[in-house]
Amino acid sequence: MTSTACFMIVSRNDIPIYEAEVGTAPKKEEAAHQHQFILHAALDVVQDLAWTTSAMFLKSVDRFNDLVVSVYVTAVSHTRLMLLHDSRNDDGIKSFFQEVHELYIKILLNPLYLPGSRVTSSHFDTKVRGLARRYL
Amino acid sequence: MEPDVSIDTSSMIRIAVVPVGDIPLHIFRDYAGMLARHHHDIQLSAITSFYTEHQKSPFSQQPWDSGSLSFKFILGGSPPSPWEDFQSNRKIHGVIGICHCPSSPDLDTVVHQFAAACKGYSSSLVQRCFAFSPGDAQLADRNDRGNKLILFPPADQRTQEIHLQTMMQDIAASLLMEFEKWVLQAESGGTILKTPLDSQASLSSEEVIKAKKRRLGRAQKTIGDYCLLAGSPVDANAHYSTALELARLTGDYFWYAGALEGGVCALLMDKAVHKDPIIEEEVKYRYNSVIVHYRKSFTQDNAQRVSPLSFELEATLKLARFLCRPELAKEVVELLTAAADGAKSLIDASDRLILYIEIARLYGTLGYHRKAAFFSRQVAQLYLQQENSLAAISAMQVLALTTKAYRVQSRASIPKYSVFNDVGSSLVDGGKLHHHLVVSLFESQWSTLQMVVLKEILLSAVRAGDPLAAWSAAARLLRSYYPLITPSGQNGLASALYNSAERLPSGTHCADPALPFVRFHSLPLHPSQMDIIKRDPGREDWWAGSAPSGPFIYTPFSKGDSINNSKQELVWVVGEPVQVLVELANPCGFDLLVNSIYLSVHSGNFDAFPISVTLPPNSSKVISLSGIPTKVGPVNIPGCLVHCFGVITEHFFKDVDNLLLGAAQGLVISDPFRCCGSGKLKTTAVPNITVVPSLPLLVSHVVGGDGAIILYEGEIRELWISVANAGTVAVEQAHISLSGKNQDSVISVDYDALKSALPLKPGAEVTIPVTLKAWQLGLVDHDVIASKSTSVNVTRPLKDASSPMLLIHYAGPADNHEEVAESVSGRCLATPLKVCVLQGLSFVKARLLSMEIPAHVGEISLGNDCADSLVKIDPYRGSWGLRFLELELSNPTDVVFEVGVSVQLESDSEFDYPKTRIDRDYSARVLIPLEHFKLPVVDASFLAPSNGKTSEKKKKAEVNAYVRKLISKIKVRWVSGRNSSGELHIKDATQAALETSIMDVLLPDPLTFSFRLVPKGDGDGGGGGGVLAHDMTPMEVLVRNNTKDSISMDLSITCRDVAGENCIEGTTSSVLWSGALSGMKVDVPPLEEIKHSFCLYFLVPGEYTLLAAAVIDDPNEILRARAPSSSLDEPIFCRGPPYHVRVNGSVC
């Protein structure tokens, strides 16, 4: 069975700084665009929801068709880790977010990384994809 | 599904508004607009005069005083809905035709056409045709056409509106009466109400029975609907309650939900208090039940054909619209998400379209712009699936709405004032944008989405046949996302731009710039010829206060006031062409042809000259854009106008600056200039530029070429500087001054040449002679030369830094300008006297030589008439005591120098010595005789004993002054080649050489001795060498006291032969004498001479030397100071110089 998952990190300025299609479904460019559109639209919901709860993990904040958006709001300059998925494996998603968050913090600790700019580390990318395989 | 549904849609009476006859579309829209603007609601109280109660009204609870009928005008009408029976508000209850009389003269035809149009609306109860602007003939035409055609006589807007309102009230009353009729009829039970849900194919007997059971409930629900339309919520409620009971009993869920929905509408109409939380809860509760029941009514058997889903979704949307407030955002979002989920089950594509439109609108109302944009894009995609141009236009327009949320909006859609505010604010804070402002500029830049949206806009615009929109979208896409587009994609966009431009009229402007990127590079340094200086009208020397001129806008020498205004100010002059450097970048993979680019000036006082540029792929170029200021005033240059890809666009410098800032913050994908290989440039703001009235313009050049003049150290050269007025205004005032380094190398400037030429008319020229003397290369310069000598060019670096500058401050007529207080300015012409000093004769060392050449006795005391001989005798000393200043010169150059020494005599004439030639790479010594410098008296004051440091210092200063005076009398001139000549700087070296022995040079001995032959009778002994052996030779010794005190001494005279033996005393004396030769006590009065005569008798011919010596008694301090004795007790011994006497043998 194929699954769809699109993971993105969105900076405080609503600029995507990392994006990865981590699903097992065959990659199609248009679908990837559509995923990003859904995630972008979900920011509206997240922006309101984030202030109503102290939890960092907001599960299933938004959905479109069969795709569900889960978000992990970090305390680090309000960066949001967003995942568009069609599975309902909440625990796996939560663990995935937590581990990616740790990776992201490591990126932030890099003195050469300008906060708010794109994450271009290939190591980070490999790790994220590995985590996606493990948890999603 | 229907668009724009809300809870109170159920209470709206639909009226189709249709055009009748030939009516231009815009006029139809005007009339319909007038109708729709003012007549949504008609108060019940207003229609009483038109209302006649035929029977007893079924609407017993009608609120005549507070109620109203509400209308919904449907322009152009609509086809009948299959759901009319279910929701009566879907019926078209009335038809209004609109006719424009001037375009349809025959009213009969109009009536026919209207009647034909009404046929399509079988449900309509009232029909009227409004004919506007009838002519007199039409008004006069009194044929009765029933009350369906209503003429609106031409009148002003207000009158027409009142007329229209009256007519509408009439229609409302008619409708109300028709509703009453309908309800009475329905109550009597004759109507069959069906929906597409009810299976139509074959009614089994069971179903017929079921339908009969249900009929009553449905009738009650429909009557309720009519009550709502008639504006009577209480009646409606009553009927709905009955309907609900009946529908529940018969399991008619669909109608149950419909009745429930109507009930909510009635509730809200009745209470009219939407914000009441209790009512809100009630509405929410009831509507949720509505939705549930609609869902329940879904039956599998007819799911392929019809489905109540659209009603469920409509109900959801109605509730969402009712709740649509930011506080309830969460609930609304849930409702809308649920509605969106329903979209895939919708059978009809247009239903899905409507659903998405409504969802987008509701999200927009909620303030969720990204959500709204998302659904708008879904709408656009649905439109794009329909392959026709109208749908494409719709898609394009819908996408245009999303551009704001996706941050790709066309600049044309941004209000103008905000753009200008932006520009203004950046001017205020001096071009420095704060970090958070920069960040906010790039917020939500989600490039993937932006590219997709722009591509879709481009696609839809191409399909819709809107070349300008296509151009704009392609331009935005190319400009903002070129790094993400493959070269072939970039080429495709470029050709899309060209294709779009072909369909546009030439000279079309577009608000969105495409390529290239243009940034402000710099202003070329003002040529120093054109410096403009504020003139202080109150001062005669108006140039004095101005900042020192030069090639720099800022100089560290300007003080205070000019420093603290940090913003650069620039002055341009009317009619004088100016240049601005801008940098263009083409980061794309194709050759970019910029048809023309020129400065965009909004202040309207500048003529810009367009130029055409071609930029190769991935390249940047700095180009100079020029223009001419035409009028006085400030000039504002926000950017450039570019004609590229067939369309004219304005490129603002500020945008690119922001882009570069964003790139520096890592917010933007790439910096177009850096990826083109252009270096990082500090972002510079365009300075404030003011244009002043025309000024004179002096242009200067050095006669004989403007190149650097190559001079050897110390060379003197006369230059002619030609100054011409190239402006259009005469020069009336001018002042010459010098600035820069080595100012003292300018020996003279002929100020009068310029002064006498004033006023200098336009085109006039004047030549100013200037005399230059090349300065001496300092130590540093030598070092520079030494270090540079390894590199290619030796002399160049020296020329500019150290050359002096000739500043000519000049101005036009002072009374030329009315506004004296302000823009009276002058100019400054800075002419660098480009001098390149080469190392010339170099000075190795100087030293003082002294020698004594014994004099012949016969040659002494012949007066000073022999001043032209090289070596002169010292009149006070008597011998050829000489002191030379020896200068060792070397010639490291490759030319020949001739050195001549001249000494200034006391009589102001100069004495030249023969010239010395120094070949290249040779050294030579030049001897400068130091004579004529002796003071006549040994002055006590001069050698005063040192009493303390002050006098010591004073003495030293005095000595130095003497030395300087002495040195200034000596000039060492040189000549090289035909036209180089100059003077050596020997001052310092000489001073060093002389310092130690200055006393010897300057001061005479206290005593001078000389011998002379006493002329015998007729004076034949006066000639040289006239001393004979074996002859008595009378001689005199002259002793002169050079001090101011009388000196008593012990004088003695000796004579020596060639071997140095004393010839007078001793065993082998060869000279006999008479008179005293030793031990003579004499007193010499101050500054006088004494004579002592004696006779010598030489026995042997030959060379003899006469010496006089004296032992001074009681020497005073002066003498002691001059004498080289060490102890005080030692007698001071004064010796005269030796005198030669040639004794010839007696003539036999």
From TrEMBL, chain A:
InterPro entries per record: Longin-like_dom_sf, Sedlin
BP terms from Gene Ontology: endoplasmic reticulum to Golgi vesicle-mediated transport
Pfam family, one: Sedlin_N
GO cellular component: a single term: cytoplasm
PANTHER family per the UniProt record, alphabetical: TRAFFICKING PROTEIN PARTICLE COMPLEX SUBUNIT 2 (PTHR12403)
Name of the protein in question: Trafficking protein particle complex subunit 2
Originating species: Deinandra increscens subsp. villosa
From TrEMBL, chain B:
Trs120/TRAPPC9 third Ig-like domain sequence ranges: 868-1002
Pfam family, one: Ig_TRAPPC9-Trs120_4th
Coiled coil: none
Major site of localization recorded for this protein: Golgi
Domain of life according to the entry: Eukaryota
Occurrences of domain Trs120/TRAPPC9 first Ig-like (ranges): 547-652
InterPro entries on file: Ig_TRAPPC9_Trs120_1st, Ig_TRAPPC9_Trs120_3rd, Ig_TRAPPC9_Trs120_4th, TPR_TRAPPC9_Trs120, Trs120_TRAPPC9, Trs120_TRAPPC9_N
Record bears the keyword Ribosomal protein: no
Subcellular location: Golgi apparatus
Keyword terms: Golgi apparatus
GO cellular component, one term: trans-Golgi network
Trs120/TRAPPC9 N-terminal domain sequence ranges: 9-189, 204-269
Trs120/TRAPPC9 fourth Ig-like domain span: 1025-1143
Residues of the Trs120/TRAPPC9 TPR region domain: 331-496
PANTHER family: TRAFFICKING PROTEIN PARTICLE COMPLEX SUBUNIT 9 (PTHR21512:SF5)
Name of the protein: Trafficking protein particle complex subunit 9
Organism, scientific name: Deinandra increscens subsp. villosa
